[in-house]
């Protein structure tokens, strides 16, 4: 990246004072003939539901690829015992099952808390 020097001194000139404006709304025939101001054009870079969905799909696909690599690298069998039940499963499956159980417990606790908070908030009548 190269910087180009200024060719001469830069002087800012003050803008002329704007004409005095009347704070009262215009009255008369000219007020009725002016069209209303057009709404600002939407920003084409703003997020939409579709773009959020695609971001979610891409993140989900990346997590699945990482999960597949994890499963393929942890195929050795481990002995699992839970109370009186015992068995042999691969290490990856055992870790994935424990992760899924943790996620479900967290989701249940979060859902119950949201339900509790929604019950506390009075509902406003819909019009």
From TrEMBL:
Keywords, sorted A to Z? Cell membrane, Membrane, Transmembrane, Transmembrane helix
The protein's superkingdom reads: Bacteria
Domain spans labelled Lipopolysaccharide assembly protein A: 73-122
Q: Name one Pfam family in it.
A: LapA_dom
Q: Does the keyword Membrane apply?
A: yes
Q: Give the stretches traversing the membrane.
A: 52-72, 92-114
Task: Tell me the protein's name.
Answer: Lipopolysaccharide assembly protein A domain-containing protein
Renumbered to this chain, the Pro residues biased-composition regions fall at 15-28
> What segment(s) does the record annotate as region Disordered?
1-45
Entries under InterPro entries matching the protein: LapA_dom
Q: Does the keyword Transmembrane helix apply?
A: yes
């Amino acid at each position: 990246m190269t910087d180009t020097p200024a060719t001469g001194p830069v002087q800012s000139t003050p803008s002329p004072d704007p004409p005095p404006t009347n704070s009262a709304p215009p009255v008369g025939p000219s007020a009725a003939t002016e069209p209303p101001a057009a709404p600002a054009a939407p920003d084409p870079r703003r997020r939409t539901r579709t773009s959020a969905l695609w971001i979610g799909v891409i993140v989900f696909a990346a997590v699945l690829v990482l999960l597949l690599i994890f499963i393929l690298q942890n195929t050795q069998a481990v002995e699992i015992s839970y109370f009186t039940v015992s068995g042999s499963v691969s290490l990856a499956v055992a870790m994935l099952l424990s992760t899924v159980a943790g996620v479900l417990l967290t989701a249940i606790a979060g859902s119950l808390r949201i339900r509790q908070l929604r019950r506390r908030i009075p509902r406003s009548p819909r019009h």
